[in-house]
Amino acid sequence: xxxxxxxxxxxxxxxxxxxxxxxxxxxxxxxxxxxxxxxxxxxxxxxxxxxxxxxxxxxxxxxxxxxxxxxxxxxxxxxxxxxxxxxxxxxxxxxxxxxxxxxxxxxxxxxxxxxxxxxxxxxxxxxxxxxxxxxxxxxxxxxxxxxxxxxxxxxxxxxxxxxxxxxxxxxxxxxxxxxxxxxxxxxxxxxxxxxxxxxxxxxxxxxxxxxxxxxxxxxxxxxxxxxxxxxxxxxxxxxxxxxxxxxxxxxxxxxxxxxxxxxxx
Length: 265
What we know:
Layout (H helix, E strand, L loop, with lengths): L1 E6 L8 H11 L1 E5 L4 H13 L3 E3 L19 H6 L3 E5 L11 H18 L3 E4 L4 H10 L5 E3 L6 H9 L3 E4 L7 H9 L5 E3 L5 H7 L8 H11 L4 H16 L3 H18 L1
Helix pairs in contact: 9-10
């Protein structure tokens, strides 16, 4: 089974049915991240219709300033979400530093809850890698997915030393910079993602469909001198190790895996 560890299915709009059809066809277990409460509610509806989809709640750093005063109102969503994301900090695309304190306030609120509830966090780190590293350490976050990392190697290595998992997505099809980063990720900490539909659209000008994940895995296999199936299976084992013992995520995952096995059996 393919693993898309970071997508935003609510953003497909009119293409949602086509996207979930592709997920069913290609058998892609998909973590559909939210950026705000409205997108979480939309992802929950998608997850009800497609059992390969795990909806998760988070407040994205780009909109953190809109929600910083009412965070306690989201405790019910935080408790319900099996893992938390998309969360993080962004000092790269957010040019106005006056928004940074709000980002840090929201991020810390979520990771404190994640630590209390022993939940995985799905993280955005653009330009804020050092602060992310510090805050994850100070709040004793054990399990994290570092999404689409493109920052300094020195912080990447420190995050890897803590055993955090790194996704590689569609940019591997376009840039040597991401291929270089992908080569540095140990086999046992590698996950795949799309960040679709926006990830591929940002690079190629057209919304990315879930099936492009096969191209990502094929490129990862090529650079690691693996067969496609070996690479797909390795990423699946990594994801299973990440969620091992976490019944909240396993309840979703095992239903999808059982569905996959019945389809291929």
